[in-house]
Design a protein that fits this description.
The protein contains eight helices and six strands, in the order H-H-E-E-H-E-E-H-H-H-H-E-E-H. It has 216 residues and is α+β, with helices and mostly antiparallel strands. Helix 2 packs parallel to helix 4 and helix 5 (142-153) runs antiparallel to helix 6 (158-168). The longest helix has 12 residues, at 115-126. The two termini are 38 Å apart.
């Protein structure tokens, strides 16, 4: 049986022409640092790890044989969630464009036959950015969860929405729901995150008792 994508180690190649695209990774949101090396083609792994460590969200990347014809590889970053200083730095590499309602900036890296050179260039670019607060990580709240349920099912199943609200507003029910869904619960603020790693990134640099400024 074929292993799951996330269980496969990256394949190191000495030529960009030998690197195939990880097509299955398109649209998968990265929620841990460990995921990067499974979801990002290896010449850009170290660069994306630097962005992760600086709390900068990457949305897409490409460094494979298909990029040879284009003449460049790329890393796309979430422009809207950048700090003001990082927005200025990002604009050295291009201008943001709208993508499905949010602004992304594509950092292009010229194609080189040696993937190691591409890797070094990606790391060099990522290191020009400053570490920032991870404003792109939004806590999951009870009200946010109920609003999502309302939007998705309210028109067709209004009674189910009422029952779900009644269920989750019982004492301790929200905490149990977070546990059932595998979320990491910030008990002090009664909000949840997809995992503990994202929780730690979200509160890094924040004042005690505060989480990310936008709620989901």
């Amino acid at each position: 049986m074929e292993k799951n994508l996330l269980d496969r180690p990256p394949i190191i190649s000495s030529s960009l022409a030998d690197i195939s695209a990880i097509k299955q990774s398109r649209g998968i949101e990265i929620n841990t640092r460990e995921q990067i090396k499974e979801l990002v083609e290896w010449p850009l792994v170290k660069g994306c790890e630097v962005f992760w460590d600086k709390n900068i969200r990457t949305t897409e990347s490409s460094a494979n044989s298909g990029d040879i014809q284009n003449g460049f590889c790329y890393i796309r970053i979430d422009f809207d969630s950048l700090s003001e200083d990082n927005k200025k730095i990002a604009q050295r590499y291009g201008e943001p464009r709208n993508d499905l309602g949010s602004n992304v900036l594509e950092i292009r890296i010229p194609v080189n036959e040696s993937p190691n050179i591409i890797s070094d260039q990606a790391v060099g670019i990522a290191n020009t950015f400053h570490k920032q607060t991870a404003t792109w990580i939004h806590p999951i709240t009870l009200e946010g969860q109920l609003s999502y349920f309302q939007e998705r099912y309210g028109a067709n199943y209004p009674q189910a929405v009422v029952q779900e609200r009644d269920r989750l507003t019982q004492p301790g029910a929200w905490e149990e729901e977070c546990k059932r869904l595998g979320y990491y619960l910030d008990a002090e603020n009664k909000v949840a995150y997809p995992n503990e790693e994202l929780f730690k990134k979200a509160v890094e640099g924040s004042e005690p008792g505060n989480t990310a400024s936008n709620e989901k």
